[in-house]
Amino acid sequence: MTSIEAQVLQPYKYGFVTDIESEDVPLGLNEDIVRLISQKKGEPAFLLEWRLKAYRHWLTLTEPTWANIHHPPIDYQAIRYYSAPKQQIKLDSLDQVDPKLLETFDKLGIPLAEQKRLSGVAVDAVFDSVSVATTFRAELAKYGIIFCAFSEAVREHPALVEKWLGTVVPASDNYFSALNSAVFSDGSFCYIPKGVRSPLELSTYFRINASSTGQFERTLIIADEGSYVSYLEGCSAPVRDENQLHAAVVELIALDDATIKYSTIQNWYPGDENGKGGIYNFVTKRGACRGRNSKISWTQVETGSAITWKYPGCILQGDNSIGEFYSVAVTNNRQQADTGTKMIHMGKNTRSTIISKGISAGHGQNTYRGLVKILKGAEDARNYSQCDSMLIGDQCGAHTFPYIDVRNSSAIMEHEASTSKIGEDQIFYCKQRGLSAEDAVSLIVNGFCKEVFKELPMEFAVEAQNLLGISLEGSVG
Amino acid sequence: MSATPMLEIKGLKATVTTDAKNEILKGLDLSVRAGEVHAIMGPNGSGKSTLAAVLAGHPAYTVTGGTVSYRGKDLLEMSPEDRAREGVFLAFQYPVAIRGITNSYFLRSALNAIRKHRGQEELDPLDFLQVLETKLKQIGWDDSFLNRAVNDGFSGGEKKRNEILQMAILEPTLAILDETDSGLDIDALKTVAEAVNALRRPDRATVVVTHYQRLLNYIVPDRVHVLAGGRIVKSGGKELALELEAKGYDWIKPEAVAV
Questions:
Q1: Could you give the percent of chain A with pLDDT greater than 90?
Q2: Is the pTM of this model over 0.80?
Q3: Which of A426, A432, A443 sits opposite B109 (nearest CB)?
Q4: Residue B246 Cα, gap to closest chain A Cα (Å)
């Protein structure tokens, strides 16, 4: 099986460090740090109060231990909570962006300069604690779409931020959401007005660069009545021996007849083959289908991070609303992932679909954890869940923890699960038809993930397949 | 027919990889010339499927002695994928399923791997579709297999037919059919046999491994060999198959001991 493993064990391609002067706050966390971050961003009083309340609540909490992950204790006083490249943050044009930053994003395949931009995708580029550039803003503004850095939204659209911030993921939701609410530095903000279908894919690329620094970003997307938006996020980090913390919060709100499609390609540095280094990724993502006939669809491809702790969920409040979760999670070497979703059915005739594909290789441990909850008032709710695990080699593990809580007898629930192993026989069969071992593994893994990949926007489906070391020709769709 | 055989097996010995003491092939000799069809028959456990697997390079078996020359090259030196690219095709007794990958995509990947090896241009999906349609017409089948995932949810008979379809597309020089007749009803057997016959050419050879004479009514062999105890113990013309059908294998066994 060595050739199979070699195929999956590809070197991390995004591990470089950008040498740039940064403006940092001291290590550690206390009320002064929270105030300092808020001050640096010139925030209104309501937000500082909100942060402080979250911080004080966080002090009363203890780190959760229920997940199927193991790591040495995180020293929250050894982390730097804010680091920004030294430059003028308020930029009128890309000409003022430090060329080193543009070069960094170029290297990551996210060109920001006008002539090189990805067509059809507007990008907000976040570097450590700040957004350095957002493309296509003027074009989007013509449609009334607001797409900007979170800190800018706080300045320019404080009423919208105050109205929606923390309404889906309250600061007190969990340990990491409380931490994020206290110290979040930047992220993306999107508002799609009534009846507008975003003409571009909106996208944020998160880059961690500075050492000893955590990244705590927040994303807030509001899709007003009858609107549609497809949003993508990508991320990467340098190769380092230390473990860096990433604790983000993402909130989505879909009003009547609105649809949000949210896709993630998570490629944080996963650590080396002995489990040294890598990002600890503790993320809270949740969408609220507030309106009737609204829809929120999560698609995630999780290939990076030493630890992934993430459960993008949907609160299906509006009648006839739809929640979807499509996931591919890969754990290799010593990576650990505990990921899944929560589907909370509240409205009548609400529907949810969960398709989870876990791939474990090396000594990787991959856990699916999902909750489907049907509340009393959710007449005729339906859920379909499918959890498939694939094992490569004999040192890895796959685990499944599906929780089902049904309070209304009209609900229809379906759950399917399977575990398979890439076998010598499958590889040999492909080889006997002339395919190399690498192509054989690609083909088998690709086929296994197909139901998820077909949910990704085209450009990103390609990237996702590349990430899995897959030759992509013709196999999506 | 050329003078040198396409496939020449001399004194081939092989054991189970995980159990070196378990020798299954014990000095097997076989010569197959271009244009010929050879049938390998024999009782259960005689080593028929092992022979097919060893020729294809299956890692479950380890060759411990003997030589195999294929078109003048040392077959045993080649990796399984290179054997395939050089024209060796094994129709599996138990074909493997690959979820989420359509037959047509799989076949195009395989054909392109072989074409690349031969220095030919790879086919794009449209060109490939033409190749497919021509082949399907030649063997008289419809295209219902093509958009289904490789062997996923196929019946036993469908899997066997799918092997033959792959063979038709990949145009092997040496085709080895491992009990392709097992699990087929008489109609399916005829269809498969007709497809195999349609692909016969003077520059190709076929080795049919079978348990029963039945298939040989439809695929008429030039030579029939009886494999017992890891060796070829008797060879003859097509009439040998009929004799075996009538008398069973027991009458040969004493000779096997003598060899």
A1: 52
A2: yes
A3: A443
A4: 36
